[in-house]
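User: Before I run my own analysis I want an independent prediction to cross-check against. Here's the chain; please return only the structure tokens and, at the end, one sentence I can use as a sanity check.
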Amino acid sequence: MKVPSGFVFVPAQESQRLLQAMGNQTGPGLMGTVFPAGDAPWFVVINFHDAGYVKDDDAKDWKADELLASLKQGTESGNEERRKRGIGEIEVVGWVEPPKYDVTAHRLVWSASVRDKGAPANAAQGVNYNTYALGREGYISLTW
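Assistant: Structure tokens:
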């Protein structure tokens, strides 16, 4: 994968080991990760989801509450593995930007805030920013 100057692409196999070491789950669609070449506190995970063709009408009708509940449930499932490995658990707090579908770009975008599980409400939070780029045979997800 070609990335702009100042960024580094890490292929799927190496990304899988790195993400698992960080306490993240990976799946069969992992394509790789992109990191800034410097010392920035973020990275992008790239996955391909073999979901077939998703119609614009289906994509623009995503229900924010259902997606948020799914994110929370998936995070809780991931926390089981984090606990086993002695890695701190996290929780999804809520939307930073609720899901919005761009019909022209065929792209669904949202972001959710996360924090250490059980942290006080005023504790520092992180943001997972997500983009789904829809295609004819599935979609590519980018998660920052």
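Sanity check: The helical segments are 12-21, 56-60, 64-84.
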